[in-house]
Amino acid sequence: MYGFLKKREQGSLRPIRLKRAETTKRVYDIQLSQNKEISRAHRGGVTCLSLEGVEQRYLMSGGSDGYIHIYDLHTHSRGNYTKIKPVASVSRYNRHLYAVSSVAWFPFDTGMFISSSFDKTIRVWDTNSMTAACNFPLDSRVYCQAISPIASHCLVASAAAEPRIRLCDLKSGAFTHSLTGHTGEVYSCTWSPSKEHILYSGGNDGAVRVWDIRRASACLMSLDQDNGVDRDPLAETNSAHGNKGVNGLTLTSDGRYLVTLGMDEKIRLWDTTNGHNTFVNYGSYWRNRFKSHLQAVVSDADVWPPLLFVPSDDQQVLVYSLLDGRLTKRLKGAYGRVTSVERRSSYQELYSGSNEGEILVWEPTKKSSTVGTAVNNTTLGSTLTTSFVDDMANNTTMEGILDAWSDSDDDEHGSP
């Protein structure tokens, strides 16, 4: 740390480099929080989590009991221990009839959020009154819904127990059109964070499809684990996970890489520029046996090497190095199957929900080591070593890599 501060004072180190090094150290050092707890509010399991991106203050959870709760993460107590209780909840008469499968905040305003459920509906909620402002009835149970974080349009994509993906227009309250191509149920969908009209979907046919919603023939390609997209991007034989379903999709913050989670218990990393499988081997530690949407997250651009946090059926969150597949840490503490994880990048915190109803808080240790010390990993995997930190401080090549990973235009000024 002293070396970083000295170089920063001399002007030989850009401010953003020190920020990135400290952020990386903290994220690599997270463990179960000893002084912060989120109270148990769901009568059943927690199925999904969503943190709003405006202030990164309000965490929302959906449960198998049909309820949705909102927590204020800025809650503080007088002592050293903080217990966070819901500040708003959907009432018994307004809740979903069956399990909530996914929740999402409106990207630009915390006054509205969206949920999907096995009761065959997608609902748009008014946060102030916690009542549904709009209801989209579908023909089958909904596994997932997604709204673009950058788009000028207000379309919500639905992944349901049917082969088509339906797009719901928040402006008109009606369905605009359907995307057809999957041959079975669709388990997951997500929008590109860099291209507002690009949508990704995964289904129980083992296919991961890329859509451009502006086109009449909307499907651009179907990803193939053997990179068959070079021969024919829409070949019927293309398959991302064999004949097993794909129930999780996660994109990096710049939209360059796509992570797919398959029910063959394989994790695959794809280059979105050409649709190629990068053939990163994540090992056989992960468990995924249930037909439900899984929510994984990737660390933000200030963390290098980037990390992938994946919920696992064996009561833990597995932390992988995104680009080489090494297992760096196991986050253990859940009493049941972990269903979802969500990150709070401004505080380097992680939240996980399980089917036992608890939401766990993971944060950097209070007595974390200095930048030049190896991270204390609880299990096998890589460590953040002194040599890596020296590269961060001295290697101009590493600076170029970090700048390429971040899409911030304000790096010169060191803005967060």
TrEMBL record:
PROSITE patterns, per the entry: WD_REPEATS_1 (PS00678), WD_REPEATS_2 (PS50082), WD_REPEATS_REGION (PS50294)
Record-linked Pfam families: WD40
Transmembrane segments: none
WD repeat segments: 93-135, 179-221, 246-280
One GO location term (cellular component): Cul4A-RING E3 ubiquitin ligase complex
Protein name (database record): DNA excision repair protein ERCC-8
InterPro entries in alphabetical order: Rad28/ERCC8/Ckn1/ATCSA-1, WD40/YVTN_repeat-like_dom_sf, WD40_PAC1, WD40_repeat_CS, WD40_repeat_dom_sf, WD40_rpt
Record's keyword terms, sorted: DNA damage, DNA repair, Repeat, WD repeat
GO BP field: proteasome-mediated ubiquitin-dependent protein catabolic process; protein polyubiquitination; transcription-coupled nucleotide-excision repair
Domain of life: Eukaryota
Keyword DNA damage: yes
